[in-house]
Amino acid sequence: MKLSIVIPVYNSEKTLAPLVARLQACLDGHDFEIVLVNDGSRDRSEAVCFALTEQYANVQFIGLRRNFGEFNAVLCGLNYVRGQYAVIIDDDFQNPPEAILTLVNAADAEGYDVVYSRYARKQHAWFRNAGSRLLNKLATYLIDKPEELYLSSFKLIRYEVVQEIIRYKGPYPYIDGLIFRATRHVGSVEVPHHPRQEGQSNYTLKKLVSLFLNVLIGYSVWPLRVFTLVGVGLFLVSALVGMGLLIGGLADWFPVQGWYIVTWAVFLLAGLQLLFLGVVSEYLGKLFMQQSGLPPYVVKHEVVRQSSVGSPQ
């Protein structure tokens, strides 16, 4: 099989059937499958997914018991793919299905393990665009991403890399972080980005902050190193200031009031300790959750066929 199309589904009852129909049309003649992962939708998306498995022989469906998040749903879908390439595409039509072949052609021509899409202009709210830029900048330092590469959700992943990604069993998957742990042979191609057809984006400011913290804390020890350097710097500055106060007081260069020094030292050390305790607590919390055996997702329904072809039943 050439292609596996993974679609994380969340509250998309109106766009899902048209999206699958368009995929069937634009990929006609190709050997492909579609893997739908319903991430605890609150509308009729689950019923639509079941109907699509009845209508098309190449549609697989996995329903999760609750909303686990987009990355968790994608990780679930990647566990079911069988194609030479897995393509992840959103359910809102902002990524045109026709662009899938653009990603495939780039992978075939250059031999890339992963091909990301990039956009001349993104049709998102300003805060989401700002959050994406911040996360991309952060990823450059945390996961050793090339600075010019844009990490988009619409991407192609070679099967061998998929097999490395799905080895992750923790509750906090970050797909791009897992990709760069497996390969550096990554490219990108420009594709259109369209306005959302129905509803509003499910990425709230709260979810963006949660994703930011997950990337910052869960996929690098960089914050610990930064705070360690900050601690060393503050210690050295404090030592120099303390020596200056001591020498200045002994030499009678200026008056030194003891309660100023005590207050300054207490606030400095208390703030530094709280800062370090907060960072260490984040790491310990992540470690606890990973070692607690919590799965990244829990499957409720599963409609999977042993063989499928790109045509209706």
TrEMBL record:
<keyword id="KW-0448">Lipopolysaccharide biosynthesis</keyword>
<protein>
    <submittedName>
        <fullName>Glycosyltransferase family 2 protein</fullName>
    </submittedName>
</protein>
<keyword id="KW-0808">Transferase</keyword>
<keyword id="KW-1003">Cell membrane</keyword>
<dbReference type="Pfam" id="PF00535">
    <property type="entry name" value="Glycos_transf_2"/>
</dbReference>
<keyword id="KW-1133">Transmembrane helix</keyword>
<feature type="transmembrane region" description="Helical">
    <location>
        <begin position="259"/>
        <end position="280"/>
    </location>
</feature>
<keyword id="KW-0472">Membrane</keyword>
<keyword id="KW-0812">Transmembrane</keyword>
<feature type="transmembrane region" description="Helical">
    <location>
        <begin position="226"/>
        <end position="247"/>
    </location>
</feature>
<feature type="domain" description="Glycosyltransferase 2-like">
    <location>
        <begin position="4"/>
        <end position="165"/>
    </location>
</feature>
<dbReference type="InterPro" id="IPR029044">
    <property type="entry name" value="Nucleotide-diphossugar_trans"/>
</dbReference>
<dbReference type="InterPro" id="IPR050256">
    <property type="entry name" value="Glycosyltransferase_2"/>
</dbReference>
<keyword id="KW-0328">Glycosyltransferase</keyword>
<dbReference type="InterPro" id="IPR001173">
    <property type="entry name" value="Glyco_trans_2-like"/>
</dbReference>
